[in-house]
Amino acid sequence: MRAGVVDRAGDRARDYHLEHAAGPVLDDLLERTLDRAELLRLIPLSEDSPEARVYIAAARAKAVELAGPSGHISAQIGVDAYPCEGNCLYCGYAAVNSAVNAAATKDALSRELDTDTIVSYSRILGELGVQLISLMTTEDYPIDTLCALAEAVRAHIPSTVRLMANTGEIDLRQAQQLKASGFDMFYHAVRLGEGVITALDPEARRQSIACGKAAGLVLMGGTEPLYEGQSAELLADGILEAAGSRPYYSGLCALHAVEGTRMYHERPVSRARLQYLAALARLATGNETVLGFVGHTKWLNLGFDPRGRHNPVRYEDIQSSFNQTKQQLRADGWLV
Ligand code: SF4
Description:
This protein is of the alpha/beta class and 336 residues long. It has two domains: 3-66, no CATH class; 70-331, Aldolase class I (TIM Barrel), CATH 3.20.20. The protein contains eleven helices and ten strands. The strands form three sheets. The chain has a six-stranded parallel β-sheet, covered by helices on one side. Strands 6-8 form a two-stranded parallel ribbon. Strands 7-9 form a two-stranded parallel sheet. Helices cover 46% and strands 12% of the residues. The protein starts with a helix and ends in a 5-residue tail after the last helix. α3 crosses α10. It binds iron/sulfur cluster (SF4).
């Protein structure tokens, strides 16, 4: 018998096993969440192991149970590119990575998008049908300016599109200001190694999360950046910290190693490893977190980009990115 035939038969047997194994695991994990001891046992397993495949299948089924079978497309607009004192060592805009920052913005007329450009991008995104638009800034971007942007954007997008602030630390008054200006969500997270590979205080990050939620903003959280060599303890605690902030939307993100940054030497986790760890995070996170983790949410990126990507600018290119994202979601089995 040829090897390919054996492999296909093996795949069928494994899929059959999974169908039956995922049931009891899923039933159990819809009722409860993975605890730290389970995460510490599961994280070191190979992402290719039969047990890992059961957890990946269970996480996807749990996501469908909570959010339905539809894919979601969000968009992030990078508002500015000022050297940032947040100094996350992996970020192209960190002040310590000044050479990268200078190179990334050398062709730009300004380090900040103007309001008309942001409104124009947002209008296009709204017409295309994205469900969420995030305005991303560096850590010390003025809240008043961000709120003015939100008011301008809000006037040009459908009311069904969620508007999210991804900015620096906020107190309660600033969070209320963001909410009043038209934002309904905010992204904030205590990153893996916060305070060690960043210059930001984890406690200040937690305070910002509490203030945003107290002001009525819906939280998007997450666990990042993931790269090879991180301990099971660090990952388990990071996953549980994000879960404990009870976000509506969450996920895991691999390190994007930007050439020239202080962390360029680190190796991001593979796609397969990320999928497995995200599955564990889905199963360790409560049912109030509806979106994220399993690939049913995808992002378009516009504007300034601390990861050094060349984002679309023209209408045709934004539309083409949107259509490609839709196709990816469909290819992965999500309805769009
Ligand atoms: S990740 Fe954000 S906070 Fe950190 S350096 Fe970059 S822009 Fe600043």
